[in-house]
Specification:
The protein contains 16 helices and no strands. By secondary structure, it is mostly helical.
């Protein structure tokens, strides 16, 4: 085993330990017995309705990928994409910053012999719209917490700066996809092996980014639809454990759309945990406590949302096994290695 592989494994182990420690602290400070009691008394009908809407979320995400690939002259059936999407979602459930979702692109490329830069574009491009919604949700939620609930000790200046930095980051990566002169300013990264792969990947994605822009409003529409489905999913999961922050059902759905967008952003932060495991649950519980929800109910809700994802995403296990049996990651590495000559027209 080479040094890089050892470091990668050690880093992943640290992420696992990080999540376990945070979960351990949560279970220590909040009575695990009470949390389990809340879960055991959850309304099964509401949970099943939530599962249905989570499946709709994944259908919307798969359709969004289908839209991009079709625009790039690669016409796949929704069912074919859905299998890879679930596999990517499952991989993201167990990887830092949910980076495993890019496995969706690797799987599609391997299964249907598609150029890796095009399948990654079908993931990376729409994800920028997703992050815009999530960061907007953070801004709205913070505004709600500060003004409506009169939450003290919140540094509005620091919050505003953090949100602006996140929006600027999205804008930066968006420009990298569509503005070649900006990418050229980072040509120095080609001196590094991994930097060279990243540079030529973005270069190849730029060649297809015009197609992405031509269907941007369709992507926005499907992204908003999936966000709406996610809000309804969380609404029913909240009802399943007895959470009712707002009396009006529609307002509650709207609140959950904003709440889930803000909290799930933690899953994507590069912190030493597995997909934000533990940290998002802590934020989940803390925010709900401020809204008058009992800690054990808030934590039960957080665990339920993560558990539902992992359970349904497990549908992607056969696709992951197929990928590993077919060519493992060697095929992906060969594809990435070929990008330089492809980008140079070789």
């Amino acid at each position: 085993m080479d040094i890089k592989s050892q470091l990668s494994r050690h880093k992943y182990l640290i992420n696992i330990i990080g999540s376990l420690v945070i979960f351990g602290l949560l279970f220590y400070f909040f009575d695990i017995g009470k949390v389990l009691e809340v879960l055991s008394k959850s309304n099964l009908l509401f949970i099943l309705i939530a599962v249905f809407f989570y499946i709709l979320v994944n259908l919307a995400m798969s359709y969004r990928i289908q839209l991009v690939l079709k625009k790039l002259s690669m016409d796949l059936k929704l069912r074919q994409i859905l299998n890879s999407n679930f596999a990517g979602m499952l991989a993201s459930d167990f990887t830092p910053a949910r980076a495993g979702y890019f496995f969706t692109a690797f799987s599609l490329s391997s299964r249907f012999k598609l150029p890796i830069e095009k399948t990654i574009l079908s993931i990376f491009g729409p994800q920028l719209f997703d992050f815009t919604i999530k960061i907007s949700s953070v801004a709205i939620l913070m505004l709600f917490m500060v003004s409506a609930l009169k939450v003290a000790n919140m540094d509005s200046g620091l919050i505003t700066l953090s949100i602006l930095i996140m929006f600027a980051t999205i804008a930066f990566f968006g420009l990298l996809l569509v503005y070649p002169p900006l990418l050229e300013k980072f040509s120095f990264i080609k001196k590094l092996k991994i930097g060279r792969k990243a540079f030529y990947l973005f270069h190849l994605m730029q060649l297809n980014s015009k197609s992405l822009l031509e269907i941007k409003w369709q992507i926005v529409g499907v992204t908003l639809l999936s966000w709406f489905f996610k809000g309804i999913e969380w609404y029913f999961l909240a009802k399943a454990v007895g959470i009712s922050i707002l009396d009006d059902g529609l307002y509650m759905v709207l609140f959950m759309m904003i709440f889930q967008g803000a909290v799930t952003l933690i899953h994507f932060l590069p912190i030493p945990t597995i997909a934000g495991g533990g940290t998002s649950e802590a934020a989940f519980t803390g925010l709900l406590v401020l809204l008058g929800v009992k800690p054990e109910i808030g934590l039960a809700f957080a665990l339920l949302t993560r558990g539902i994802m992992i359970l349904i995403d497990s549908v992607g296990i056969p696709t992951i096994i197929e990928y590993i049996r077919k060519d493992g990651f060697s095929g992906l590495l060969k594809e990435l290695d070929s990008m330089e000559s492809k980008a140079q027209g070789g």
